[in-house]
């Protein structure tokens, strides 16, 4: 008998030559592994796929018990299962496809999908098994499960899984804490260095955060630069505070990403189970409120001193925050309506020539008269607009309205001076910002020389590549760039030269105590001398007294802005004010 491993083989057990020839053709045509055994479990025939999947040569299989292809304990139980079927006819596996485990010659095990059938030849009964390796199917299922459970970038569990596990914790534990972690300055990293650096940064941040957690604690990514840590080791508020503080400190050291050094911090809100919520959504929402409160407080420079430990970065939820949240939500709803329904307005504060006391410019200031709720100042609604993605709409509205109003003043012969519009960091980094500026100028008919865009000094310190491209395009258009709040940030002469500002606005904090404060007087004189050397006009903000005006004029300041000269006023009031105060208004110099 030919026992070559390359052919379909059979033992002499009642199958004639015709059966073997037919079987050979059928079995070799299949990509699945197929074997034929007799009633004793002896392998009578097989196809090429069996050799591939199990790693045996043909002569090692024929005449051997099929149980050799099974791991323990199934190997020892196989003959008993077969005998039981032959005696009772109880069909536990015949005609039923199922998943089993196979064992290769080298001892490795792998999952198989197996179907078993039987047939007769004369008085003999035979069984055939059809199986295929489903390892790849298992691996794919595991990958899909992993993707459905974990964040692909950081390896943290995702929001859905975090909520499910936290709900389970809330049902089974007496105590737990939720830490809502939001990274500070992460967007600046993405803007300035690219998302590939931001992604690597998140991986390193997660490694540091995990280092402050216990073995049984959870860390999940909510999306973007927001994470949730669930502390399950007990310890209550004290432990939650210690862990949050440790996380903040863990991020203090710089991160080295490729050849780039970056730094980020964290704002962390804490909620406790069961004090602050009975389910995952409540706990996460309340921790989020606490995080937002501390971030907002730090932005306003008003940290809550009642929480002295890490008060600038960590805050524990209290129920008063829900009332504030409800107020913010109502304010946000009305703000959306105001933007959509043209419920905003611009006030204009004239800038003046200190020598002639004639208007030489205007600054556009956004105001919102919230109907029955009265005037809402920008400091109250701008942070809300930033957090909820409304700044693009606000920026575009201000730009278009300011250009339109300035064009009307020129057409009416009332004023021919630049109008200054404050630009947010979002706008200056926006890929489509230049097109929006061009559209506003075109639609209003305002010449580019009559538009100034003001950026704050802290924004100018570290512009992204896109922002620098936008600034270059503005210069080519003839739109001037003004540095606002000069003196309170960290700019340098390099920034003044590189960005080619048209003006500097000296921050009002240096003007308030003039001429009595010797320190402020020195700063003002130095800045004015610098402007003179660089041929860079200086606008002094916040002039409120004649003494301040005289000091500034004496030391060479050309332009000013402040209540001494004019308060901010709506367009209609400005139009009535100009004929009396403007005289022969000086036109803006040609671009």
Q: Helical region count?
A: 20
Runs in which pLDDT lies below 50 for 5 or more consecutive residues are 1-14, 302-309, 584-591
Give the radius of gyration: 38 Å
Largest sheet: 8 strands, mixed, barrel
Give the distance, in angstroms, between the N- and C-terminal Cα atoms. 102 Å
Q: What fraction of the residues are assigned to beta strands by DSSP?
A: 15-25%
Largest sheet: spatial strand order: 14-15-17-18-19-20-21-22
From the helix content, strand content and strand pairing, which structural class follows?
alpha/beta
Number of E-state strands: 23
State the helical fraction: 40-55%
Sum up the overall morphology in one term. Answer: elongated
Mean pLDDT: 84
Concise structural overview:
With 591 residues, this protein is of the alpha/beta class.
How does this model look, in words?
The protein is α/β, with parallel strands linked by helices. The chain contains 20 helices and 23 strands. It has an eight-stranded mixed β-barrel, surrounded by four helices. Strands 6-8-9-7-12-13 form a six-stranded mixed β-sheet, sandwiched between helices.
């Amino acid at each position: 008998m030919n026992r070559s491993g390359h052919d379909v083989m059979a033992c002499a057990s009642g199958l004639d030559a015709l059966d073997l020839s037919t079987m050979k053709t059928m079995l070799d045509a299949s990509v699945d592994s197929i074997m034929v055994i007799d009633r004793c479990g002896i392998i009578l025939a097989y196809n090429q796929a069996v050799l591939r999947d199990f790693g045996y040569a043909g002569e090692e299989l024929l005449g051997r018990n099929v149980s050799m292809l099974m791991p323990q304990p199934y190997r020892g139980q196989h003959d008993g299962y077969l005998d039981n079927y032959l005696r009772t006819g109880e069909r536990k596996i015949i005609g039923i496809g199922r998943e089993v485990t196979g064992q290769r010659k080298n001892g490795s095990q792998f999952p198989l999908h197996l179907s078993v059938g039987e047939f007769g030849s004369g008085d003999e009964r035979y069984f055939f098994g059809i199986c295929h390796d489903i390892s790849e199917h298992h691996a794919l299922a595991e990958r899909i499960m992993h993707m459905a459970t974990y964040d692909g970038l950081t390896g943290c569990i995702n929001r859905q899984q975090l909520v499910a596990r936290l709900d389970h914790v809330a049902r089974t534990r007496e105590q737990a804490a939720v830490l809502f972690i939001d990274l500070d300055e992460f967007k600046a990293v993405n803007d300035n260095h690219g998302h590939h650096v931001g992604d690597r940064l998140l991986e390193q941040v997660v490694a540091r955060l995990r280092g402050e957690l216990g073995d049984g604690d959870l860390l999940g990514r909510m999306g973007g630069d927001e994470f949730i840590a669930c502390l399950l080791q007990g310890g209550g508020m004290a432990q939650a505070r210690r862990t949050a503080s440790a996380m903040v400190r863990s991020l203090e050291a710089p991160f080295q990403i490729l050849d780039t050094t970056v730094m980020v911090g964290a704002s962390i809100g804490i909620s406790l189970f069961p004090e602050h919520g009975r389910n995952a959504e409540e706990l996460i929402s309340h921790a989020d409120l606490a995080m937002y409160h501390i971030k907002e407080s730090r932005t306003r420079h008003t940290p809550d001193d009642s929480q002295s430990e890490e008060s600038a970065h960590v805050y524990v939820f209290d129920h008063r925050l829900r009332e504030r949240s409800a107020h913010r939500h109502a304010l946000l709803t009305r703000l959306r309506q105001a933007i959509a329904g043209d419920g905003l307005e611009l006030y204009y504060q004239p800038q003046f020539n200190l020598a002639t006391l004639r208007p030489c410019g205007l600054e556009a200031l956004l105001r919102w008269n919230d109907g029955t709720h009265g005037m809402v100042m920008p400091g109250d609604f701008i942070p809300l607009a930033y957090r909820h993605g409304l700044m693009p709409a606000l920026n575009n509205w201000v730009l278009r309205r300011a250009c339109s109003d300035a064009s009307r003043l020129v057409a009416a012969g009332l004023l021919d001076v630049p109008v200054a519009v404050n630009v947010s960091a979002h706008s200056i980094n926006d890929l489509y910002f230049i097109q929006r500026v061009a559209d506003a100028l075109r639609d209003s008919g305002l010449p580019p020389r009559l538009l100034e865009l003001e950026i704050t000094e802290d924004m100018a310190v570290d512009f992204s590549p896109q922002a620098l491209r936008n600034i270059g395009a503005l210069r080519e258009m003839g739109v001037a760039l003004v540095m606002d709040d000069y003196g309170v940030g960290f700019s340098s002469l390099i920034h003044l030269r590189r960005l080619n500002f048209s003006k500097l606005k000296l921050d009002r904090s240096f003007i308030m105590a003039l001429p009595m404060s010797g320190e402020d007087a020195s700063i003002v004189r130095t800045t004015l001398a610098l402007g003179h050397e660089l041929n860079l006009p200086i606008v002094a903000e916040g002039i409120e007294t004649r003494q301040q005006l005289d000091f500034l004029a004496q030391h060479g300041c050309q332009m000013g802005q402040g209540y001494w000269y004019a308060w901010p006023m709506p367009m209609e009031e400005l139009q009535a004010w100009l004929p009396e105060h403007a005289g022969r208004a000086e036109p803006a110099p040609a671009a």
